[in-house]
Automatic annotation (TrEMBL):
Residues 24-248 form the AB hydrolase-1 domain. Gene3D superfamilies: alpha/beta hydrolase (3.40.50.1820). InterPro entries: AB_hydrolase_1, AB_hydrolase_fold, AB_hydrolase_sf. SUPFAM superfamilies: alpha/beta-Hydrolases. This is Tropinesterase. It holds the Pfam family Abhydrolase_1. Keywords: Hydrolase. It is an enzyme of class 3 (hydrolase). Signal peptide: none annotated. The lineage of its organism: Bacteria, Pseudomonadati, Pseudomonadota, Alphaproteobacteria, Rhodobacterales. Its EC number is 3.1.1.10. Transmembrane segments: none annotated. It comes from the Bacteria. GO terms for molecular function: tropinesterase activity.
Amino acid sequence: MAARTDELIRVQPAPHRRAGSGQPLVLVHGFLGGSAQWEAEIAHFSATHDVIAPDLPGFGDASALPGCDRIEGMADYVIDFLDSLEIKSFTLLGHSMGGMIVQAIAAKIPDRIDRLVLYGTGPLGVMPNRFETIMQSRERLLADGVEKTIRRIGATWLVEGEKASGMPILTSIGECASQDAALQAFDAMENWDGRLQLEKIAMPTLILWGDTDRSYRWAQIETLWQKISDANLAVIPGTSHAAHLEKPRLVHAVLEDFLS
């Protein structure tokens, strides 16, 4: 087993951050994210859990790795990573695109997941009524590059936009991504539909959502809530897509209640 530390560990196949001991809590980031976005969550929950946050291929500290153009492929990547650490059962949280990935993981290895958290995500990768279409985002990424893209898109993830205190974190992590991986991620999301799998999700599930999220609108959240049999819904008021950066204490309290 890898040593516990809050520093970056490079264990094949994935760079990741890990701290604490106890029941494993796995945190999966989304588009233009990385394990560094979970710094506050790792610090908070490592008192009671073995917190493990991988970097997806092509993003964050894994930016040198080739990306993946299918959600199912990213799910396999995370499963292989957990197998490399000999993690058998765990609580699983996925944010945004990471929420799609953990839905795919739940379909593949349901018996290993004790609890599931779907945070700022939905069952349909094209994200109906998103602030712009995936096609528009792809075109602007090609024209502007990764650095301008994370500043523009990241501003939509926070209520206060570019003035928000969370923007430097979002931009510093997002700028690490390779453009190829970001483009592949758009393909992965655009081609993914997890709606038929929702009724097969049987583990206790928390659906966590910021009430002004412009990426995943209420219709997506409502579908998760209605179709997953053992689902609880928590709406974080006055937050957008990155609620954990806007109201971390409230998000932590909701997660603590669910995990306990």
